[in-house]
From TrEMBL, chain A:
The gene is agps. Pfam families: FAD-oxidase_C (PF02913), FAD_binding_4 (PF01565). Pathway: Glycerolipid metabolism; ether lipid biosynthesis; Lipid metabolism. Homodimer. It comes from Scophthalmus maximus (Turbot). This is Alkylglycerone-phosphate synthase.
TrEMBL record, chain B:
The keyword Lipid metabolism does not apply. PANTHER family: DIHYDROXYACETONE PHOSPHATE ACYLTRANSFERASE (PTHR12563:SF20), GLYCEROL-3-PHOSPHATE ACYLTRANSFERASE (PTHR12563). InterPro entries: GPAT/DHAPAT, GPAT/DHAPAT_C, GPAT/DHAPAT_LPLAT, Plipid/glycerol_acylTrfase. Pathway: Phospholipid metabolism. Residues 155-284 form the Phospholipid/glycerol acyltransferase domain. GO terms for biological process: ether lipid biosynthetic process; fatty acid metabolic process; phospholipid biosynthetic process; triglyceride biosynthetic process. It is found in: Membrane. The lineage of its organism: Eukaryota, Metazoa, Chordata, Craniata, Vertebrata. This is Glyceronephosphate O-acyltransferase. Keywords: Acyltransferase, Membrane, Transferase. The keyword Acyltransferase applies. One of its GO terms (molecular function) is glycerone-phosphate O-acyltransferase activity. It comes from Scophthalmus maximus (Turbot). GO terms for cellular component: mitochondrial membrane; peroxisomal membrane.
């Protein structure tokens, strides 16, 4: 690591103290899978499923139902392993722009062209990206990684990039699932990955206005932990919050599971600072709302790294909730569960806005994927005594937070509505388990890949009247397409409603299949996902609720926002970045 | 004449809908074997059969829904609510009042399927069928495919419609094979027969008014009723694409209303798919044979009445041969619509608000409907008699022209029939000709089944001169004049024509090409012949099932068949008739000739006789008089031109082409004739086919 200068090791020692992301993330994180290196699912020598490490509540535990579920759902067999091939030497040497590197050195901003650093930043977490890495197939990767430490560092880097015509790709948490981080194969210039992880400070907290000014490279868990230390929270909790960054949230229009209370990222930001090739864009004040023409924040929100680097954000914060309560409801079927959520959204939400300041959080989600985690007793009770069909029932997990009185009042209201739709309260444990799974579920995919099972989730948003139809049709389309493409085992094709709005809901689809016997499983996967997305669009679903477009979904952008819409976006790009310095080619 | 509008239909490029309809050698078409379902009925108790345990599998295992619950679902649907509100707003009537009306419409419409009635029919129909028919043959593989389809998707059954028998027969078959009983869209005219109407209702029929023009509420109740049954998979929905019974045995131009409704749940994403199953029902002898002929000749059809049906008891003592029912390959609407319809067009308005189908959807449904009718045609079983009828008619006309009625020698007829058998097979006909029986026997047994239509004297066969038309019973006075004589003969001719017509779809495309070649001068190139072909095809697109926009494809298919059978040589530039091709081409041109002449006569009528006051209503009676005159004067030899079906189709074509226009005159439906254009069309049909490439027309 010859080119890392003195500053790096200095900062590194600081990092280790505060548990931030290190420069060399591969030291604590998997480079070809999800999350921390020490945390993973595996089948131990007794054939039991186990989750390793110490970081999660599930860590070190045996998960009894998982093996049966895994084998039963996918037809997977523990005898048939498909371990990753470790081959990081296939990385092509970097194409460096010498003049740029020379001037960069003089700025003192740390950088590296080490192969491992570059490979780590060449991919997100789409199934095809991870699969390729596991197979040791590595395509175009950034030629250089640079770690700015603050806004001014970014200004210098962008200036140099413009001067020397170097391509910049901002890199935050690296949790993209839209091929947004992939280096465009047609890019001939030197590609520099701009890693924001060292811009991770809370610069100030304003308790009078309940805002915090934060550097955009901070990842969700650090932001939440640091704010908690002062008694505050943002309430923004996307499933990826352990690793995803504030800048990434802004750049993709992220959504968190508690959005019903706190709002999505666009509701949470008060002020954004972004460095572009034209210069820095920011508003002149922190007014809570302005009527000053189209909101320029909305050029930045969802720009997916095509216009510049978000460096600092002022965000709303709130006092930590005094009381939290989990809950869950079992419904005889998905249809009734959805009907209940719709009713809750109708009845509780307005009320909810009134008491917004008291900080109630309610986060129901209907799922059928977790049914296997219901404990045995309850299962027997539900199926035998209430006549629920175990293959059709579904669970809604709930989280209430805020002041105790209001929480209890709300809880009652929700359970009363649920009862009208045949829902049975299924306890706090199941609710809590549902939330815990949110964070570990991403690790499950890596386990699958060890045994010829490939899986992915994708999302959409859709009006209420379309929810059931879209679920039914997309699930059926997945099964249908798999059959057409010679997948031998019936795939896992399921869904859940993860967010509710006044006018609709966010729906997640889960698709997994056993790819034994297929010569090109990734291609099959891609075709099926493509077909599923077409089905989503044909059924009135959106191109994406919060994952973004990236390069994976950009073929549908013009039909999504119309040609005029694309023209508007392009003209902004042409003005802000005429030489395509931010050349990741996302969106269009 | 504006020729660009004449050939406007050429613009559409590709209407290939069905995988099995792609251009390929029709002889290679695979068809299933038949089983006779009456055989078991002859060997076991009908009563036990009618009372046996009946447990059909339903769509995704849904539990059946009672007729009452179904009505409630319909009345409570968002669409009905919306339309009731709308009607109430527009008319100022109270919501309750409109609601009441909706409920009454539904009451009048809805089926009330009862298993006991079905069992009653199972019993009686077994008796009746065994008396009337030698066999009822069904392709059991098709039944299996249907069973599979019913479990996986909502299913629509689309039988051909040649007889009243059709829908009872369908239900009878499904009951026999333990399949879910269909609910059937029936015309309101059945309701005239009180008792029978209710019986049919209890066996699954629901009744729709023949016309309900702009009645929003009626349309809403009707479409919601059909959609509710379909998308919940309570029962397969059955209706007749052709809308009514074909009196001519030619397939009728499909009606789109119900098909639109049936596809709607898929297009709006309410179901994953809908499967359409074309069913071809072929009767060796049609029960209504003479009735149809008389109807076409202008003797008004007897109003459907219960007593009328039973008066037809004479029918029961006759031999009607066999019935073949072929359940075709289920057609997935999802697959059909791939790349043709953007389902996203329903994203921006709530789906329960009724909307006129977009241009895109309209043409998709139209193309699909044509494709489905062609799928029905392709699987129609043709009996040897169909070929004999074609040959006898051609001979009859030849005799007529030469003025001597000699008929055909049996052995000559046999020789020609064998020749035609081979030709039709090469063209892909689904011909049931018993190859193990010597041809003379095949011919004589076919003739004997249809003995009412032919006479055999001294080894020569000809069309019977007096027959079915008049119940030539005792007390009937002898014919009084040439006109009655002519009409009497015409009944026989039209009956025969209806059998010949069964084979028309096999010969149609080659016949259009043959006529185009025939009309062309010897120096005509391929492009000129194509232009003539397109002209004819366009002219006759109300007469025959010709998929819109498939001109090039039809031309190529015709070329392929004629080249394959050695009748033509087609090069890049030229089309040449071979030595052995003359016989084939002569036959084919004779197939089309009655229609060419018929359309010419209609044109002649319009340019000579039509006056300012001619209305659409008067058209048929007056053109009929004109034709009778010409037939009697010997200036026209095809008696079949008397068919009102042909006359109406010709008028429809002229209206479509703009040669005749309907104007709002003193009388509604007054016809305004563009005499120049009509004259030039007549001229073209008379042999001066346009060979010039009209502007903006598809080239080969």
């Amino acid at each position: 690591m010859s080119c890392l200068n003195f500053n790096v090791s200095h900062v590194l020692s600081q990092l280790n103290l505060c548990q931030y992301l290190p420069f060399h993330r591969q030291e604590i994180m998997k480079w070809n899978g999800w999350g921390y290196s020490d945390s993973r699912f595996l089948f131990n020598k007794k054939g039991q499923a186990e989750f390793t490490g110490k970081r999660y509540k599930l860590s070190g535990m045996i998960i009894p139902g998982l093996k049966e579920w895994f084998e039963g759902t996918f037809g997977a067999n523990l005898q048939h392993k498909s371990p990753p091939i470790l081959n990081s030497s296939a990385v092509r040497p970097p194409t460096l722009n010498e003049a740029f590197v020379e001037e960069l050195k003089s700025t003192g901003v740390p950088f590296s062209h080490d192969a491992e650093d570059r490979v780590f930043r060449a991919y997100g977490h789409c199934v095809h990206e991870i699969f390729a890495l596991r197979e040791g197939r590595i395509g175009r990767v950034p030629d250089l990684v640079v770690w700015p430490n603050c806004h001014n560092d970014v200004v210098k880097i962008v200036e140099l990039a413009c001067k020397h015509n170097v391509c910049l790709i901002p890199y935050g948490g690296g949790t993209s699932v839209s091929s947004a981080l992939e280096c465009p194969s047609e890019e001939t210039r030197s590609i520099v990955s701009l890693d924001t992880s060292q811009m991770n400070r809370i610069l100030w907290i304003d308790e009078k206005n309940l805002t915090a000014h934060v550097e955009a490279g901070i990842v969700g868990q650090d932001l939440e932990r640091l704010l908690n230390e002062s008694g505050y929270c943002t309430g923004h909790e996307p499933d990826s919050m352990e690793f995803s960054s504030l800048g990434g949230w802004v750049a993709t229009r992220a959504s968190g599971m508690k959005k019903n209370i706190y709002g999505n990222i666009e509701d949470l930001v008060v002020h954004i600072k972004m460095v572009t090739p034209r210069g820095v864009i920011e508003k002149s004040c922190q007014g809570p709302r302005m009527s000053t023409g189209p909101d320029v924040h909305h050029f930045i929100l969802g720009s997916e790294g095509t216009l510049g680097v978000v460096t600092e954000v002022t965000m709303k914060i709130r006092p930590m909730p005094e009381y939290q309560k989990y809950g869950s409801v079992v419904f005889p079927n998905f249809e009734q569960g959805v009907a209940c959520l719709r009713e809750v959204a109708k009845q509780v939400t307005p009320d909810f806005y009134l008491i917004f300041s008291s900080g109630h959080a309610l986060k129901p989600q209907v799922s059928s994927i977790f049914t296997s985690f219901l404990d045995g007793l309850k299962k027997i009770y539900i199926t035998k005594f209430k006549g629920f069909d175990p293959n059709r029932l579904c669970v809604a997990t709930l989280l209430f937070e805020g002041n105790r009185e209001k929480v209890l009042q709300h809880e009652k209201q929700v359970y009363d509505i649920a009862a009208k739709f045949g829902g049975l309260a299924a306890g706090e444990d199941n609710g809590q388990r549902g939330y815990m799974l949110t964070f570990v579920i991403a690790y499950l995919r890596d386990l699958g890949m060890d045994y010829y099972v490939m899986g992915e989730s994708f999302e959409t948003s859709v009006p209420w009247d379309r929810v059931l139809d879209i679920c039914q049709n997309v699930k059926a389309r997945i099964v249908h397409e798999c059959k057409e493409r010679g997948v031998q085992f019936t795939p896992l094709s399921t869904c859940r409603v993860t967010q509710t709005y006044d006018a609709g809901a966010c729906v997640y689809f889960y698709f997994g299949f056993n790819y034994r016997g297929l010569s090109d499983p990734v291609h099959v996967y891609e075709q099926v996902e493509h077909a599923a997305r077409e089905e989503i669009l044909a059924n009135g679903g959106s191109l994406s609720h919060h994952h973004g477009v990236g390069k994976l979904r950009k073929e549908w952008m013009s039909e999504t926002v119309s040609n005029v819409g694309i023209g508007m976006l392009k003209s902004v790009k042409d003005y802000v970045d005429p030489n395509n310095i931010f050349g990741n080619r996302n969106l269009f | 004449m504006d020729s660009s509008c004449l050939l406007a239909s050429l613009h559409g490029s590709d209407t290939l809908l069905f995988a099995d309809m792609q251009h390929r050698d029709p002889m290679l078409q695979k068809r299933d074997e038949f089983e006779d379902m009456l055989e078991e009925r002859r060997n076991s108790s009908d009563l036990r059969y009618a009372l046996r345990c009946y447990t059909p599998v339903l769509y995704k295992g849904v539990t059946p829904c009672t007729a009452g619950a179904l009505k409630n679902m319909v009345l409570q649907s968002a669409q009905i609510h919306f339309v009731i509100g709308q009607v109430s707003n527009e008319t100022g009537r109270a919501v309750d009042d409109v609601q009441e009306e909706a409920s009454a419409i539904l009451e009048e419409m809805a089926h009330s399927l009862q298993l006991s009635t079905v069992r009653f029919f199972a019993f009686t129909l077994s008796k009746v069928f065994k008396t009337l028919f030698r066999s009822i043959c069904v392709n059991e593989e098709g039944i299996q495919r249907l069973q599979q389809a019913i479990q996986e998707h909502p299913v629509v059954l689309l039988p051909s419609h040649r007889s009243y028998m059709d829908f009872l027969l369908m239900s009878y078959i499904l009951y026999t094979y333990d399949l879910a009983l269909p609910v059937i869209a029936a015309g309101m005219d059945f309701m005239g027969m009180k008792f029978v109407g209710e019986m049919l209702r209890m066996s699954g029929a629901f009744f729709i008014r023949r016309s309900f023009g702009g009645d929003k509420l009626y349309w809403a109740v009707f479409s919601e009723y059909v959609k509710t049954m379909l998308k919940n998979g309570f029962a397969p929905v059955e209706f007749f694409l052709e809308g009514t019974r074909s009196r001519t045995s030619k397939s009728l131009t499909p009606k789109l209303g119900l098909l639109n409704i049936a596809m709607d749940p898929f297009l709006k994403g309410e179901v994953f798919d809908v499967h359409l199953v074309p069913v071809s029902i072929s009767y060796e002898r049609i029960l209504e044979e003479a009735l149809y002929a008389r109807e076409l000749l202008g003797v008004p059809k007897p109003k459907e009445s219960t007593s009328g049906l039973f008066k037809a008891r004479k029918v029961l003592s006759e031999d009607y041969g066999s019935i073949h029912v072929y359940f075709g390959q289920p057609v997935s609407v999802r697959r059909l619509s791939q790349g043709k319809v953007d389902r996203g067009q329903f994203n921006l308005t709530p789906r329960h608000i009724p909307k006129r189908p977009s241009e895109e959807i309209h043409s998709f449904v139209n193309d699909s409907a044509y494709g489905l009718v062609r799928a029905q045609e392709e699987n129609m079983v043709l009996k040897p008699w169909v070929l004999l009828a074609s040959l006898l008619l051609q001979n009859h006309h030849g005799d007529q022209a030469s003025g001597r009625a000699r008929g055909m020698a049996l052995d000559e007829l046999t020789e020609q029939a064998v020749w035609l058998r081979d030709l039709s097979r090469q063209y892909g006909a689904f011909l049931h000709w018993p190859d193990h029986v010597p041809p003379p026997e095949v011919v004589s047994s076919s003739l004997s089944l249809h003995r009412g239509l032919v006479t055999i004297t001294e080894g020569r066969v000809q069309l019977a001169s007096e027959q079915a038309g008049g119940p030539a019973g005792p007390g009937e006075p002898p014919p009084v004049g040439p006109e009655e004589e002519l009409l009497r003969q015409a009944v026989t001719v039209l009956s025969c024509v209806s059998y010949r017509n069964q084979a028309l779809h096999v010969f149609l495309r080659p016949a259009l090409l043959a006529s185009a070649v025939h009309a062309a001068s010897s120096s005509s190139g391929k492009q000129e012949i194509f232009n003539s072909f397109s002209f004819l095809r366009n002219m006759f697109s109300n007469e025959f099932i010709l998929c819109p926009g498939a001109t090039v494809q039809d031309f190529e298919e015709a070329c392929f068949l004629l080249v394959k059978t050695g009748a033509l040589q087609v090069s890049q530039q030229e089309v040449v008739v071979t030595e052995r091709g003359h016989r084939t081409l002569a036959f084919l041109t004779s197939v089309l000739d009655p229609f060419l002449q018929g359309y010419q006569v209609v044109c002649r009528f319009l340019s000579e006789e039509a006056n300012e006051a001619l209305t659409e209503k008067q058209f048929v009676p007056t053109v009929r008089k004109f034709i009778i005159k010409r037939l009697l004067a010997g200036r026209l030899r095809y008696t079949e031109v008397l068919s009102s079906d042909l006359q109406k189709n010709a008028l429809a074509a002229l209206l479509r082409l703009g040669a005749v226009r309907k104007i709002k005159g003193a009388e509604p439906g007054t016809l305004k004739v563009n005499k120049v254009m009509v004259h030039s069309l007549e001229d073209a049909l008379g042999g001066n086919l346009p060979t010039q490439k009209p502007a903006a027309v598809a080239r080969l």
